[in-house]
Structure formats: structure tokens, C-alpha cells
Amino acid sequence: MQKKYTKITSHTARSEQAAPTGIRKRAIAWGPAALVASTLLLTATDASAFLGDSLELFVAETVAHDDNVFKLSGDRDPRTAIGSSSKADTYYTTQFGANLDMTVSRQRFIAGASLNETRYQSFSQLNFHGHDAQARWLWQAGDQWSGQLGYTEARTLASLSNVQSGNINTFAADALTARRTFGTANYLITPSWQLSAGLAQTEQRNSETTRQINNADVASGNADLYYISNAGNKIGLSLREENGRMPVHQQINGVAYDNSYDQHSAGIVTDWNITAKSHLLARIDQVRRTHRELGQRDWDGTTAHLTYDWRTTEAFTLTAEAQRDIGNLEETNTSLVLIKGVALRPTLTLSEKTRVSALADYSIRDYVTDPFVALGSPTRSDTVRTLGAVLSYTPLAKLLIQVTGQHQSRTSNYQFGDYKSNYISIKARYAF
Q: Strand, coil or helix: what is 243?
């Protein structure tokens, strides 16, 4: 079966050449994923000869400017909040790494590792060494069995959207490390019916002490049954289970609360090519989340996520998205964040070398299971508006120049939860 729209996303490996000794020293300091990246670079010549086009090495440099790095409210004096009269900064990110995409018989192996270093001109306490790595085996056994086994790891600077106070002389950058191990299996019972199942374990850790209440260990599983039409379209039933354990309890007025939860959902999912130029991906679930403590914040509701792709011409594609869904783990702030929003993502290919994409996003985020709500505080609600555009230019086959601009604003019923920020960057990436 072939689908007209297939999209595979992965961590992009990035690279910067350096002397072998320097690479090894940084690899030891940055951890196992860094060691993988440096090893791939150090063996690049022999590996490239053996793997041919399957192995790709990268170097990249990004220069960015943000006029509100700490996402401060307009009602806050930055000199009091962050110890500086200016909220803006320019920073530089250097990246290097490698990607591998190799097919052996009916098996596909995807791997990548990268290191990145970010340096701020003014807010040097945010200087950061990060990495990302992934390994996936897309396996096939006969004509009926298929699936994936994989592992991902990323160390990034946690979002500053909810860190809106404190003096920069005492503020500590929060390194967010996320690891995920997962496996899926699909069994084609008949040409028209498919059974799918999956298991995953996710671990998230924050380095900054005050944000370690967001540390989480989440185990999840799913079982799905699909009907597949002659055209390859799918519709099915899905059951999902999620068990979230928060190892660090949240202190409120001297009392420690356990934010651990269990979540159960059942729903309908479809992956459908409506016409030769349009595609719908949709999911509707009935979800129930229960908590180990403060049961009055348990949540029961319907979620939905719809994505519609429309290719009007070979050069223009429009993606429309609507959701009433639960936010990603790193956004939760120990709470279930219910996101209600719409987004438009047009993409225009101007030539073989030039492409422009844009984003218009409007969302309302309600922190519906925050423990403060169970203790009598009003539910926090934020409205976020985002406008952005990306210009991509490929002057040479292996050289990409990318210019990105974004404006974002947030209003909130939470004191000092509002902000406005403007971001612009230019990135050069070379593959060899």
C-alpha cells in the first residue's frame, strides 16, 4: 500500500568539525549521545566509503536575535525582574553531527547524533551545551508483520515561557533531558484488517531545582484495530493507557502533593486520502485522567485533533489544523494543559532552490488539573497567538540557507503571564 502523503520526522543531526582531541573532551563532558556523535565524525572517512549515500555529516551555524528572551510581561520592569534594562539578546548556535539512513533487504535503519553549543552575548548564564540522538529500526517480517523499535534522547534548554522573574545573576539555566524508548508492531490480519500495538517509556529530567517538580516517568501503551480500504485509506478504533509518575512532589504551603496520574482513553482514528490532492488525519478520544492525590482535580473529557493537507498545485500546499487536545509533557508544568486552537501552515515552492513556508496559530491553553485549582485557585488560562515565516534557499546541493522570523504574544489571567516577543534568525547548514 502506498499513501499519497507520508511524513517521517526525526531529530536532525548537526555537525561542526573540530580537532579529534577537542571532540573527545567535549564528548566526555556532554555524555553518551555526544560520544556517539564524535565517534561518527572521527570515523567519517572510512564510514562514508563503506556506507556511501547512507551516511550524511553536517555542520551548521545559526545567528538569532530575540527581543524578549525571558518572555517578561510588559508590566514588569526588566531591571527588577532580570537585573538588566534590556530584555533582548543575540545568540549563536554551532551544531555538528551525523545521520544514517540505511536499508538492508526489507529492514530500514535510521540513526543520528549531534552536538550543539549556544552562546549568548549578554545573558551568558544561558550558555548551553546540548545534544540529541536517535536510533530506529523499521522492521518487516514477511508480508504481514511490521513495526518499529527505537530510542531517542535530547538535552535542550527548557522553555523560558514560564520563567518570568528572578535576577539574571542568580538564575540557573534549566537543562531538560528527555529519553524515550519505544516499540510498535503491526499485523495484517487480512488485506482489509490490521491490528497494531505499541509500548513506550519516557523519562524527563530538569536540572534546575525549582523545576524538578516537572520530572516525570511516563509509561504508555496502545492497541488499535484498523479497516483498510482498497485505496489504502484507514479508519479504526484505538485504546490507550498512560501511567505518569512524578518522583519530586510539589510543595504548596508546606504540604507535599504527589502529581502522579493514570490516564485512559478510547477513540476513533482515520488516515484518509479524500482526493488525489487532499488528505485528512483525524483522531477523537474520550479521555479520563485520575490523580493519586487531590482527586477533585481528576479530568474527564473529549479530545480531538484534525489535520487537513491540501495540495492545490505542485508548488503550493496548505495544511490546516484544529485541536482540542492535551499538551505535550514538557508544557504541562505538573498539570494537564488542554489546548484548543487552530493553525494554518502554507508552503510555496518558488523554484528548485527556494521555498517559503508560514505559520498562523491561535490557541487557548487551560491548566485544568493544576493542584492549585483543586485547592481553590482559579484555572490558569493563556491565549497564545503566533505568526511566523521561513525562507529556505539552497544555492548549492549540500548548502542550505534558512531565514526565520516569528512574532508571538500571550495574554493570561495569571499575574505577569502575558508577554510579546519577536524572533529572527539566519542559519547556514552544510552537508558532506
A: strand
Cα dihedral angle (170, 171, 174, 175), rounded to 10 degrees?
Answer: -60
- All three cell numbers of 322, joined, read 484544529
**Displacement of CA 262 from its chain's centroid (Å):** 22
DSSP string for residues in 97-108: EEEEEEEETTEE
CA atoms within 13 A on the CB side of 19: 3
| Under 8 Å between Cβ of 347 and 325 | no
- Alpha-carbon gap, residue 423 to 143, rounded angstroms: 48
Q: pTM of the prediction?
A: 0.84
Torsions phi, psi of 299, nearest 5?
Answer: -130, 140
Q: Give me Rg for the CA atoms of the chain.
A: 23
Residue (of 198, 55, 37) closest to 132 by Cα position: 37
C-alpha cell at 239: 485504546
Model confidence over 255-312: pLDDT tens digits? 999 999 999 999 999 999 999 999 999 999 999 999 988 888 899 999 999 999 999 9
- Give the Cα-Cα-Cα angle 110, 113, 116 (nearest 5 degrees): 145
What is the spatial distance between Cα 330 and Cα 341, in angstroms, rounded to a whole number? 18
Q: Residue 155 half-sphere exposure, CB side, CA atoms within 13 Å? A: 19
**Number of continuous H segments (helices) and E segments (strands) in the chain:** 5, 20
